Amino acid sequence: MRQFKPNGITKSLLWAILAFFLSLTQLSAQDQGIRIIKGKITANVSESSIAGATVSVKGTQNSVSAGEGGAFSIYAKTGDILVISYVGYKAKEVKVGAGENTINVRVTQDYSNLQDVVVIGYGKTKKSDLSSAVGTISSKELEKTVNVTLDEALQGKSPNVYVSQTSGAPGAGASVIIRGISTVTGNYQPLYVIDG
Predict the structure, then answer these.
(1) Cα–Cα distance measured from residue 64 to residue 51, given in angstroms and rounded to the nearest whole number
(2) Surface-to-core class of residue 196, CB atoms within 10 Å of its CB (0-12 exposed, 13-18 middle, 19+ buried)
(3) What is this structure's pTM?
(4) For the chain, give me the number of helices (H) and strands (E)?
(5) Measured in whole angstroms, how far is the alpha carbon of residue 53 from the centre of its chain?
(6) In sequence order, what are the residues at sequence separation of 6 or more whose Cβ sits closer than 8 angstroms to the Cβ of residue 55?
(7) d(CA 84, CA 182)
(8) What angle do CA 85, 91, 95 make, to 5 degrees?
(9) pLDDT of the chain along its 196 residues, tens only?
(10) DSSP, res 116
């Protein structure tokens, strides 16, 4: 069996064919307008940046998370639709225009799905994935009675929450026990987180 040994002309011809196909690929990418789109995601009202928001190209697996300061960078082409989503904000779709390399997006808050996320002492999770019980007391329930402190307002509103007065003196604090006394240090008072 004879072995084929390319000579100088054959090598040049092979390189020319390879270069031709590479240039066709580049032209095809340029025709489609594939490029890096950069931008920043901010809240509509407060104008604060939203780090961690998801930016994806609709109909593809191409997605990134916004980094520090809400900045993002994603590959897209002219005509693609970028979908911006984040918990607590309405998803927004933005079409990539011809020659557009920077897209700054402002998203509006959406409180309708916030009941699905529960912030716990060691992180946050969806309410459906939570392994413990969660009690919710709405502000409408708290407004039904006249109370001086938040502790007093919780009294009788949730099961397994026991609220009692520490003394009969005016302005004396209340003791709040949730599901009995079971701490090592003996300090069983809850930590209140209001508006984040």
Answers:
(1) 11
(2) exposed
(3) 0.46
(4) 3, 11
(5) 5
(6) 39, 41, 63, 64, 65, 66, 72, 74, 82, 83, 84
(7) 44
(8) 95
(9) 566 565 667 777 777 787 777 666 555 445 456 889 999 999 888 888 888 889 999 988 898 988 888 899 999 988 899 999 988 888 999 999 888 889 999 998 876 655 666 666 556 666 666 666 667 777 788 777 777 677 777 777 777 777 777 777 776 777 777 776 655 666 667 777 666 5
(10) G
For 27, the token pair is: 């032209």
> What is the C-alpha separation between 91 and 105, in angstroms, rounded?
11
Q: How much of the chain is helix, strand and coil, in % rounded to 5? A: 20, 30, 50
Looking up tokens 């809240």 gives: 43
Q: How many residues comprise the chain?
A: 196
Q: What is the DSSP letter of 53?
A: -
